[in-house]
Amino acid sequence: MSYPPPQGPPAGFPPPSGFAPPSAADYGAVSSVIGAPTKITIPLNKLAPEAALRRLELTIVRRLEGYLQGDHLGLLPGPGTDANDARVYRAGEDDVRKIDWAVTARTTVPYVRDTMADRELEVWGLLDVTPSMNWGTEGVTKRDLGIAAIATIGFLSQKMGDRFGGYIMRPESLRRLPARSGRAALYALLRKMLEEPMVPDHARGEQGLAHAVEQLSRTQRRRGLRVVVSDFLTPGDHELDPNVEPDWERAMRRLAIRNQVLAIEVVDRREIEFPNVGDMLIRDPETDFERYVNTADSDARARMDAASAAQRERIRISLRRAGVGHIQLRTDRDWVQDIARFVLAYRRVASMLHAPPQGVSR
Predict the structure, then answer these.
(1) CA-angle at 202, arms to 291 and 176, nearest 5°
(2) Up-side HSE of residue 8: CA atoms within 13 Å toward CB?
(3) What is the reported pLDDT for 7?
(4) Bridge partners, 189 (sequence order)
(5) Label partner for 292 (CA 20 to 30 A): which of 76, 117, 129, 354?
(6) Does 217 reside within a domain?
(7) Residues in domain DUF58 (predicted)?
């Protein structure tokens, strides 16, 4: 979406006394629409207020691989305090101190009870920085709001020994930021994301969200938490039927087979609620589509709002079919409250939502 740029006096006429052409700063949040943003809209120290997150914890229901002792259930049996399944006692191999006498008494066959070791969590965040993410009309761009979401999830999921890494998806490449443990490492990763150069409009490349998710699934084989941050808009995809799968749905479903996946959808208010500002140029920053629309026409606004709502509903249904957690963040709302509300409700549905397919180990 685009507004006409600020205009000065007509050519050949001297400016009136005291006239000064308006700058981008005079337009406030609209400056991200008039031109491409040139700096970050959220400073590093405002990304995730730790005081507001101290009592929250993101529920991890999938069992993990790893070597360090942590706060999450391991995938393989090992020394620990959490009981696992009972199995038949094997003489000479099993410790008699692990015999489960209750099961043995019921079956009259000696059984031992395995324990499950705790392991560390490895979190990978995939950030979409394609041109459609540079837009925002509420003082913050969708891209910076996505980085704030990654910061918030990073603080919520961080425990002793856990590691956080990232991928930055540009139209032409996928940049990997190595996973490291500790709060200082998390801040360093967020700073690199904030300092990533802006992608100009109409930048060309073969890197799409489906391919980026596939790369994340193939390169990071250890089970853990995967966070995908995007507006989930595919250039040139105008389909509104929820029964038609987006090109990224299959990749998300494949990623969710081995991992616990959280999809964070970032939207701007004016993408779903078109304002009444008269004739307005609608343009796609990732394709060549441009068209003037009279937003003063209430019927035209109603049709645009309905199409936008259908588009977002299709995204919601696709993410639900993929079996991933879904958060929608808006640039006109407090993202910390939205994530906190999601985390509190997530505890009740996480185990059902992330249940692996039949025959696949949790």
Answers:
(1) 140
(2) 12
(3) 46
(4) none
(5) 129
(6) yes
(7) 85-313
* Nearest residue to 231 (alpha-carbon basis) of 106, 152, 329, 147: 329
Q: What is the CATH number of the domain that holds 156?
A: 3.40.50.410
Find out whether 149 and 122 touch, Cβ atoms under 8 Å.
Answer: no
In a domain, 346, yes or no: yes
CA–CA dist 186, 30 (Å, integer): 31
Query: Taking a C-beta distance cutoff of 8 angstroms, is the pair 233, 132 a contact?
Result: yes
SS3 assignment, position 25 = helix
Strand, helix or coil for residue 263? strand
As a whole number of angstroms, the distance between CA 263 and CA 151 comes to 14
Instruction: Verify that 82 and 125 share a domain, yes or no.
Output: no
Q: Rounded distance, CA 159 to CA 123, Å?
A: 11
Place of tokens 């808009």: 233
Per the structure, the complete domain to which residue 220 belongs is given by 41-63+120-353
Q: Would you state the structure tokens that stand for residue 248, as one six-digit string? A: 């990224």
Give mean pLDDT in consecutive 10-residue pieces for the chain, a chain of 362 residues.
Answer: 45 48 47 60 77 69 57 55 69 80 89 69 92 86 92 83 90 91 89 90 87 93 91 88 93 92 93 85 81 87 91 94 93 89 84 66 52
